[in-house]
Write a structure and sequence with these properties.
The structure is a homodimer of 430-residue chains. By secondary structure, chain A is of the alpha/beta class. Chain A has 14 helices and 26 strands. In chain A, the strands form 8 sheets. A 5-stranded parallel β-sheet of chain A has the order 5-2-1-9-22. In chain A, β6 and β7 form a beta hairpin. The longest helix of chain A is centred in the N-terminal third of the chain and has 20 residues.
Amino acid sequence: MSDKFKDPTAPLVVIIGGGFAGLELAKKLSHKRFRVYLLDKHNYHTFQPLLYQVATGGLGSDAIAYPLRKVIGPMPNIVFRMAQVERIDKAKKEVITDVGHFPYDYLVIATGSNTNFFGNQRLEQLSMPLKSIPEALDIRSYILQEFEKALVEQSVTEKQRNLKFVIVGGGPTGVELAGAMAEIKRNVISSDYRELDKELMNIHLIEAGPRLLAAMTPKSSEAALGFLRNMGVDVRLNTAVKSYDGVELELENGEKMKTDTVIWSAGVKGNYLDGLDEATRVRGNRIQVDEYNKVKGEESIFAIGDVASMSTEQFPNGHPMVAPVAMQQAQLLGDNFVRLQKGQGLKSFRYTDKGSMATIGRNKAVVDLPWFRFKGWFAWYVWMFVHLIMLVGFRNRLMVFVNWAWNYFSYERAIRLIIRPFKRKEEVDS
Amino acid sequence: MSDKFKDPTAPLVVIIGGGFAGLELAKKLSHKRFRVYLLDKHNYHTFQPLLYQVATGGLGSDAIAYPLRKVIGPMPNIVFRMAQVERIDKAKKEVITDVGHFPYDYLVIATGSNTNFFGNQRLEQLSMPLKSIPEALDIRSYILQEFEKALVEQSVTEKQRNLKFVIVGGGPTGVELAGAMAEIKRNVISSDYRELDKELMNIHLIEAGPRLLAAMTPKSSEAALGFLRNMGVDVRLNTAVKSYDGVELELENGEKMKTDTVIWSAGVKGNYLDGLDEATRVRGNRIQVDEYNKVKGEESIFAIGDVASMSTEQFPNGHPMVAPVAMQQAQLLGDNFVRLQKGQGLKSFRYTDKGSMATIGRNKAVVDLPWFRFKGWFAWYVWMFVHLIMLVGFRNRLMVFVNWAWNYFSYERAIRLIIRPFKRKEEVDS
């Protein structure tokens, strides 16, 4: 396929995955002497930090999805293929996909992560994950369907089950989702479902560890907990989930909750690829890499972002699976590819933690900077500003900005649409 | 269920359908002495005139779908139910739905219309209709999937089949869709799919009658034809479709076209309801009504909009199935209900044709006013202005406006997203 590139002698780089890591690397290699194939199973980049806003009707999917072809359109040495990768053939140095084989000189695995149900198949079948746009749209439909169900249900007990929303996992996704749901309870129910007593709606956030937002400072965790509890969310710490049968959620402490809706944001695992040596698979289904993001035991295969596990003194089990790590690894790897081409030595990766943040609701956010932390309305503005900047493409920034401005002044989540009704797998199968 | 209304003695009106007719009637009855149930299978109103822009990536679905609960939120005497109507029980004066029975004093059927395949099951299975938002999103996915397929296809013949888009039916939907596809060919292919020769893409518009836009003036039909042919669309008049097997479309004249994509906009039929006297079912699966929109032979059942067929001197087979007729019938019926309540005589319906219009592409539209017609860029601005005004809700107007402005300056259709890949029924079944 190399004839499509202008310089047929340039090294072939195949990047698997157009997330934060893969897309950043493509940008770095743009206009350099490389022929690059960017592969992704979707034709768009997903801005994952705002998925929860799609799930709760604050943003439409086209505000946070960006066509990958549009990004790489102006990059003459990069070709995009919408492809589902089946495996890597290390012997032939090829990536096998559903649309053909892609030979490589260098392979970069940037396949990211997916929801981890820790082997619990019933939970996987019956709870709702939130790692992709279709999943976010499914949650939006499902929540609204539950409101509709509760409305025509006669029994108060059943209504409560319809309106009990349990979010498992107190990381940023769980916290942000719980906050958004609390705002729906406060602002949407009384106008949209005036026959419903909104006090029948209950939001629970269940976290196995001792605090929310474990990656942030204890002060910020405490602040997030306070915000959520003030907003009426029932937050349970040190509480693990045991099982869910579609009707009843059982906790490890024996307590049972009757609910139709369990949203699972309690863990992620790397999207490991077939064809690698099993010895490279480490904790969290990630791929072990050295300080140059080179896969253990390989010379021409690299992994970056969530799927890569680089053991350092500070992070013995690999860096946090967040966008800034992915982007910094991609930037360094891009530079290292150029150094390699010039016969220069590679630079090793060092993560610059610029801080982290989470939003809980209107005027409620927490921000940890390296030397400084703050919360409240200013943190909320900073959170919005940083996310607007991080979005890919001016159109998406504009769409998110217009929608946020609308939501701010109207106090609503305007996209209360059930475009494709969601049925749980069990209901579809039966 | 009447205890939810403030005035339990007010007459019960059940409106089936939240389209242009049903929604307009609900607005008319708002704050009047009626208890109204508005039923729809979706929880949103669809602005059908812009469906083709969703199908071609110019607008997101949330720009043209408007939550019905939001419209009726401020109307104290109106209750919305998301319900699938099963049938009418005339004896009990009840509407039977999947969420319960709704008793009525007056029933208004505003169920609209759906795609008419005229009994051709293979066409129904294999071609794509465009009457709902999920259908529009399916077309968007499918077109983009065909581009992706063509890109990795080796054979030029196969590429041509992937890139041959056949639109059947030269009414407004077919014309507007063909124009939008021609603009995609002109503006999107070279940047997004630079490895594809865009001349391999062909757009065909097939119309059984002697001219496009048969409801407009012959001059406007002529202008639309000229615009489309200048844009490279192959328009065939007086050409009927015989069959389609998923690979090859056969025309009545014996000609065959190899294509993956047949978009069917060649006819609509009324959404007739079970439980009515069969004698009321007339041409086009519509319900025969008198000059007050009262269903033939009934005292308390009315039908308005596309599904209603009122025979007049000018329209012996019923009025055109367009939004202005639906809205005018709804307005009159709303007034007539109030007259009925006051013991006054009913007024009969008289359609005021304010004109019609269609857009073909950038700066290309045709407008027929009762005494006057024009075309070109001014017609295009008028078309946009009228559609912005007609949209329900300020947020949707804002979203459409921002997206149109974006598309105008960028020459692109920004929402080139395959969120849910589409598989034809045949592929799903096998």
